[in-house]
Amino acid sequence: MVFVPPARHLLRAKDLADARYFEPLDVDDLARAAGLSRAHFSREFRRAFGESPHAYLLTRRLERAAALLRATDHSVADICFTVGLQSVGSFTTSFSRTFGVSPTAYRARFPPAANWAMVPACVLRFYGRPQNSTFREDNGPAPV
């Protein structure tokens, strides 16, 4: 059996799911992007990528939600809606099934987001400058 790469139209749908996971996409939207009927698209997608289009889209959303749980202090509900899901209960159930713990328990495994807060470079430069610089300030006018 020779491996045949997935058809280009399936990659368009997969790229759409990767790029716009946070929008209210469904299998019909992905099938439309691929230019196939819903049933044919679902069958071909599963054969090419090993999972259904719905499962792939849900996985992308849950991966992004996990990243947001690790890196932000946003509420679980805000994260749920940010990644394109519509129900906090379904989100919690899907997240728990995928990661083995609830979103709140997952977040508790990592340091608080405040520990990861990034300080803008301009602020670092300002506070990193010497406070009592004497470079040519105390010597009067610079030599000519």
3D structure, described in words:
Helix content is 58%, strand content 0%. α1 crosses α2, α2 crosses α3 and α4 packs across α6. It is mainly alpha-helical and 144 residues long. The protein is elongated and about 80 Å long.
Keywords:
144 residues; mainly alpha; Arc Repressor Mutant, subunit A
Class of secondary structure makeup: mainly alpha
Low-pLDDT ranges:
none
Cα end-to-end separation: 83 Å
What best-fitting shape do the alpha-carbon axes yield? elongated
> Which CATH architecture would you pick?
Orthogonal Bundle
Profile the largest sheet.
Answer: none
Looking at CATH, the homologous superfamily is Homeodomain-like
Oligomer: single chain
Number of H/I helices: 8
The count of DSSP E runs of length 2 or more, i.e. the number of strands, is 0
User: Strand-and-helix sequence, N→C?
Assistant: HHHHHHHH
Please estimate the helix content. Answer: 55-70%
Radius of gyration: 25 Å
Mean of residue pLDDT?
Answer: 85
- How much of the residues is beta strand, in percent? under 5%
What's the structural domain tally? 1
If you consult CATH, what is the topology? Arc Repressor Mutant, subunit A
CATH class: Mainly Alpha
Layout of strands and helices, then pairs:
Elements: H1 8-19, H2 27-34, H3 38-49, H4 53-71, H5 76-82, H6 88-99, H7 103-108, H8 121-128
Helix pairs in contact: 1-2, 2-3, 4-6
